[in-house]
Amino acid sequence: MFGNFFGGHPAPLGRFEATYRCFPVSFIGKADAERGDKIFLPPSALDRLGTLLGGRFRRLAYVEFKKRFCDIKIADFESIEYLLECVVFGLHSQLHVEYPMLFRLENRREGRSTHSGVLEFIADEGMVFMPYWMMQNLLLGEGDVLHVSSAALPKGSFVKLRPHTSDFLDITNPRAVLETSLRNFSCLSVGDTIPILYNNKRYFIDIVEAQPADAISVIETDCNVDFAPPLDYKEPTAPAASTSRPASSASGAGSGAGGQPAATPVPEADPTAFLAFAGSGRRLDGRAMGESRPQVVTPARGGAGSSSSASQ
Which residues pair with 162 in a beta bridge? Predict the structure, then answer.
């Protein structure tokens, strides 16, 4: 009786999969999309997604109706409508359709993958437009092949991030900046490097760890954030020991035994210096004279010194 209404037999649940040529979002004038992780798919992708969701709904409705009302005899059409409304209402909790839709993006040639959301279905057929930083993460060039498939990710509860440079931590409130920037993201995948724009400067952040899975959804979720040391962080080095000797040691070196000051050495006489009164003298009374010592005389510089010497 209800075979034609529900499509006969349950249709197998499908999964969206497609292959496109990828290009940067700047090619369609959507440079603002570089702030997030959302891509642009062609309209045919939306049609296929709608068909898959419709097929899934019909399958669940068929199973649910048969399970609940197989042994009930339907009296009239009004009872059928009521029963169908009950089935549809009960199926909303089983479809688990979340928006925006999430996708797994793969560069199978390089073995790289990540996850993203979708912003619009306006791309040309056979093409997908995505932020350029995502193309760099996947090692993709313009026109390379990208495999896109639907994905279901758990809501994130924890993520650990590592800035590339220490100046990101110099921001007044880096957590607030990060929280604002992540509003443009649908999901985070371990191993990715995401850009954060702040004050006309771009900071790059590595996704080091995520819980409860390596790829998580960050849509309407309370996610704890932790920071790892930046890539350019260096441990502070201890100051080098001073090689200068203490003043007490230097003063002690000039002391002799018993703490007595050492004798000051007498400089040797210069043989070329002028000796005043170097000859011998005689007394008029004939008595012997005491020993006389010649003294060194240093010639004075300038005119005053010359005139003084001349007067002597």
Answer: 206
> What structural domains does the chain harbor?
17-151 (2.40.40.50), 158-227 (3.10.330.10)
Chain centre distance of CA 256? 65
What's the CA gap between 167 and 201, in Å, rounded?
Answer: 11
Altogether, the residues listed in the chain come to a count of 312
- Name the residue with tokens 């003298």: 281
As to burial, measured by CB atoms within 10 angstroms (0-12 exposed, 13-18 middle, 19+ buried), residue 78 is exposed
Give the pLDDT confidence of 20-76 residue by residue, as tens digits.
999 999 999 998 999 999 999 999 988 887 776 655 555 555 555 555 555 544 444
Reported as a single tens digit per residue, the pLDDT across 165-184 is 988 888 888 888 888 888 89
Looking at this protein, which amino acid is placed at residue 255?
A: S
Mean pLDDT of the 8-24 span:
71
- In angstroms, the CA 65 to CA 168 distance is 57
CA distances from 42 to 71, 121, 122, 221 (A): 46, 5, 5, 29
* Rg (alpha carbons) of the chain, rounded to whole number: 47
